[in-house]
Amino acid sequence: MRMAELSAATGVPVPTIKYYIREGLVPAGRSVGRNQAAYDDSHVRKLRLVRSLAEYGGLTIAMIGELVRLLDDPDTDLFRLFGTAQNTITEERETRPGPHRDKAERIVADLVARRGWHCDLSDPAARTAVGVLATLSEVGLEDMIDRLDDYAAAVERIAEIDIDVLGDVEDRERAVEVVVVATVLGDPLFAALRRLTQASVSRRVYKLDKSPR
Amino acid sequence: MRMAELSAATGVPVPTIKYYIREGLVPAGRSVGRNQAAYDDSHVRKLRLVRSLAEYGGLTIAMIGELVRLLDDPDTDLFRLFGTAQNTITEERETRPGPHRDKAERIVADLVARRGWHCDLSDPAARTAVGVLATLSEVGLEDMIDRLDDYAAAVERIAEIDIDVLGDVEDRERAVEVVVVATVLGDPLFAALRRLTQASVSRRVYKLDKSPR
């Protein structure tokens, strides 16, 4: 297909497609004559992937480029891709040094040990957890920190379903795509579900809900 | 205390404090003479709150201003604050019209009905869920959509703990603060925990983990 058809098939405007090709996020078309190129289903698929990462992951073009290169590298194994995808899409935050950070670091290290998680405390995800816990402690929200194990158990359930979903994928190229999309799109989905659920749980708690459930 | 002491107590630089006061996020100090103002513990508390929202919520100054006005309004009830906090911090996304969106809208409506959630399908959280599901369907990640009820059950557990934590708060002013902070800081915390957990679950699945757990 021509670029105009590629644009129609995906809904991505032609200038955006040209930009993605220039940045190496989507491969160039097969040259079929002077200033003419042909595109196929692999372009449709890659374009949809790049757009979904750009729209929902809040990822920069540079971050998407890094992920796409990993996806295209036949030596990338799923486990490594998993870690890299996670580190790429987790914005690392510097936590102010001080007693709140020291305490949060101990809490995260204890949690990881207690639950038998395999992770490095220098990973961006661990640093983010430290930063959020330090902030919760700074604003005096210790109640939330006290329930960390309960939250962790619920999140472990989510991760188990994640891995179930990923495990169903046979084709390797597809599998790495799924890892990235599931990781990136899962966060806004769960945040949205948390809001939808909280509203009805809070109705029950604040006794606004008179109908039996 | 003077502004320099307020800055030392919170770690927020003096120019940032002045900016927050100018924008109405933190109340001005009590005037104690020409060009001199005094600040107290309520300023320390409000400054920490504003900073935690700005750092972790990814909220704009305008959004924080809206939340602070709600917090300061004695007529704001907890349930209403909950909804407003959620709508303020949930970035609404326009989903491209088409069969994927139509399908996603049906899926969300069915999910909400099936689980007995009380929410409006026009709320930003519901719109975000529709957008993510439409994108998952567009990139062919139907497996993740098929497990939506399992994910929803895990998220309901998180929301129950959220409401437990909020329910422990006696003082009303404190309670509204807690609602906002827990809602805003919970998302990055759960995303970080999801990454930490996935790594060890994926080690098990991909048989990289030889030690017994």
Question: Which features characterize this protein?
Answer:
10 helices; homodimer; 213 residues; disordered C terminus; mainly alpha; 2 strands
Question: How are the secondary structure elements laid out?
Answer:
2 copies of one chain form a homodimer.
Chain A: H1 3-10, H2 14-22, E1 30-31, E2 37-38, H3 41-56, H4 61-72, H5 78-89, H6 99-115, H7 124-138, H8 142-146, H9 148-167, H10 172-205
Antiparallel strand pairs in A: 1-2
Sheet with the most strands, sense and barrel status of chain A = 2 strands, antiparallel
Mean pLDDT of chain A: 84
Tell me the series of helices and strands of chain A, N- to C-terminal: HHEEHHHHHHHH
Taking the alpha carbons of the first and last residues of chain A, their distance comes to 54 Å
**Residue windows where pLDDT falls under 50 for at least 5 positions of chain A:** 209-213
Shape of chain A: elongated
Q: What proportion of the residues of chain A form beta strands (DSSP E)?
A: under 5%
Structural class of chain A: mainly alpha
Rg from alpha-carbon coordinates of chain A: 22 Å
The total count of helices of chain A amounts to 10
The largest beta-sheet of chain A arranges its strands as 1-2
Strand segment count of chain A: 2
| Portion in helices of chain A | 55-70%
Biggest interface, chains and residues, is: A-B, 87 and 87 residues
